[in-house]
C-alpha cells in the first residue's frame, strides 16, 4: 500500500484497519467526529491525526450506516484523486442514496470485511481481526482496474480474502449469515432475562456459543437491520414457518409423522453445517478431541506445547469450564488423520481424554 490512507471513523473497524496498516509502515491519517474516540485510537497506535494538508491515495469510510452515504459523498468531493471505499455491513442502501443524489461514483468502491467483535470502539480494535476473513468488494462495469486493485490490495495486505459480489447479492448473503443470526441470538438470550437463576446455572458451552453475539451494541444493529430490512424479513419469514412446523410436531409428538418432522429438522441442520467453510475458507471436516485440563496456571500452554511436539496442528479450540469445577474441557479440532496420534500421544503424557468425535 503506497501513499497515505485516510480512515474516517476510528471505531472498531476503522481503528483495526489503522493498526494493521501502521504495522506495515503505511502512513494512516485518522479522522472522527468524536474527539475522544479519535484521541484514543491515536494513543493506541492506530494512526495519526488527519490534517488539512493530507493528500490520500485511499479513503476508508468506517462510520455507522445512517451516515455512510453522507460521508462517502463528502470524501469524494474533498479528495477527487483518491479512491474511496467504505466498510459498512450494508451495501445497497448507501449506493442507492448516492445515485439518487447524482454523485459521481467513478472512484467509489463499496466493500465489507466480514470481521468484528462483540465490543466496539477503538479500545477493542485489533490488527489481526481481518486475517483469514472474507472481504467483499462491490465493483461495477465502470470501476477503473487500478481502483479495484487498490481496494483488493488493502484486503490482501490485512490478511483477508477479497470476494467480488454485487451489492444486492451481498445484502442477501449477510442477511442470512450475519444479520438474522444476530436477531436469533438476541431473541434467545432475551429469554434468559426472566429465567430462574437455577436454570442459568445449567448453561453450558453450547448455549454460550449460540448467544455469544447477543452482547452486540443495540444502537448499531438498529441501523444495520433497518438498512437491510427486506432481505432480513425474507429470511425471518422462512424461519418463522420452520419454527411453526416444529412446534406443531412437538404439540403431538406421538402423532404420525411428528418424529420424522423433528428428525428432518435436525438432519437439515447437520447438512447446513457441513456446507459452512472451515479453516482457510475450505469446506473441511475436522474431528474433535476433548481433553480434561486442570484449572491451574500453565496447563493450557503445556497442552499446546505437547501437541506441537506430537506434530498435531490445532485447527480450532473451544474451552468449557463449569463453575466450581477444578478442571476444564478443551475441545480441540484436528484433521481426521491426526486423531489417533493426538489421543495416544497425550494419554502417554498423562492427559485424560474425555471423548473424541468417534466415541
At the third CATH level, what is the topology name of the largest domain? Answer: Rossmann fold
The biggest beta sheet reads: 8 strands, mixed
The helix/strand series, from N terminus to C terminus, equals EHEHEEHEHEEHEHHHHHHEHEEHE
The end-to-end span amounts to 50 Å
What is the arithmetic mean of pLDDT? 91
Number of domains: 3
Low-confidence stretches: none
Instruction: Find the count of extended strands (DSSP E, 2+ residues).
Output: 12
How would you describe this structure in keywords?
359 residues; VC0802-like; four-stranded antiparallel sheet; Rossmann fold; 12 strands
Please specify the SSE layout and strand pairing:
Layout: E1 4-8, H1 12-23, E2 27-31, H2 35-43, E3 48-49, E4 58-61, H3 65-78, E5 83-86, H4 92-100, E6 108-113, E7 134-138, H5 145-157, E8 161-164, H6 167-190, H7 197-200, H8 205-211, H9 218-227, H10 229-251, H11 258-275, E9 287-294, H12 299-309, E10 316-320, E11 327-334, H13 339-348, E12 352-356
Parallel strand pairs: 1-2, 1-4, 2-3, 4-5, 5-6, 7-8
Antiparallel strand pairs: 6-7, 9-11, 9-12, 10-11
Helix pairs in contact: 3-4, 6-10, 10-11
Amino acid at each position: 500500500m503506497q501513499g497515505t490512507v485516510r480512515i474516517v471513523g476510528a471505531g472498531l473497524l476503522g481503528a483495526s484497519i489503522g493498526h494493521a496498516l501502521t504495522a506495515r509502515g503505511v502512513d494512516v491519517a485518522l479522522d472522527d467526529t468524536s474527539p475522544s474516540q479519535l484521541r484514543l485510537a491515536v494513543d493506541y497506535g492506530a494512526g495519526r491525526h488527519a490534517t488539512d494538508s493530507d493528500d490520500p491515495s485511499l479513503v476508508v469510510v468506517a462510520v455507522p450506516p445512517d451516515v455512510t452515504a453522507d460521508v462517502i459523498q463528502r470524501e469524494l468531493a474533498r479528495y477527487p484523486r483518491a479512491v474511496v471505499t467504505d466498510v459498512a455491513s450494508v451495501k445497497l442502501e448507501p449506493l442507492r442514496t448516492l445515485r439518487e443524489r447524482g454523485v459521481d461514483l467513478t472512484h467509489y468502491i463499496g466493500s465489507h470485511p466480514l470481521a468484528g467483535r462483540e465490543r466496539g470502539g477503538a479500545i477493542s480494535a485489533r490488527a489481526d481481526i481481518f486475517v483469514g476473513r472474507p472481504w467483499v468488494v462491490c465493483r461495477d462495469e465502470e470501476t477503473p482496474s487500478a481502483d479495484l486493485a487498490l481496494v483488493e490490495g488493502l484486503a490482501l495486505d490485512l490478511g483477508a480474502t477479497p470476494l467480488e459480489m454485487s451489492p444486492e447479492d451481498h445484502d442477501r448473503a449477510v442477511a442470512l449469515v450475519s444479520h438474522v443470526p444476530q436477531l436469533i441470538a438476541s431473541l434467545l438470550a432475551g429469554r434468559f432475562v426472566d429465567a430462574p437463576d437455577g436454570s442459568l446455572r445449567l448453561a453450558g458451552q453450547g448455549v454460550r456459543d449460540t448467544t455469544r453475539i447477543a452482547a452486540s451494541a443495540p444502537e448499531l444493529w438498529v441501523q444495520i437491520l433497518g438498512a437491510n430490512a427486506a432481505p432480513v424479513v425474507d429470511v425471518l419469514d422462512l424461519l418463522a414457518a420452520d419454527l411453526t412446523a416444529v412446534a406443531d410436531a412437538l404439540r403431538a409428538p406421538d402423532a404420525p409423522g411428528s418424529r420424522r418432522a423433528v428428525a428432518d429438522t435436525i438432519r437439515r441442520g447437520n447438512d447446513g453445517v457441513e456446507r459452512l467453510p472451515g479453516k482457510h475458507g475450505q469446506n473441511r471436516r475436522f474431528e474433535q478431541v476433548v481433553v480434561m485440563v486442570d484449572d491451574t496456571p500453565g496447563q493450557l500452554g503445556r497442552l499446546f506445547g505437547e501437541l506441537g511436539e506430537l506434530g498435531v496442528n490445532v485447527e480450532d479450540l473451544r474451552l468449557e469450564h463449569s463453575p466450581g469445577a477444578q478442571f476444564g474441557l478443551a475441545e480441540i479440532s484436528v484433521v481426521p488423520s491426526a486423531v489417533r496420534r493426538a489421543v495416544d500421544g497425550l494419554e502417554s503424557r498423562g492427559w485424560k481424554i474425555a471423548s473424541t468425535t468417534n466415541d
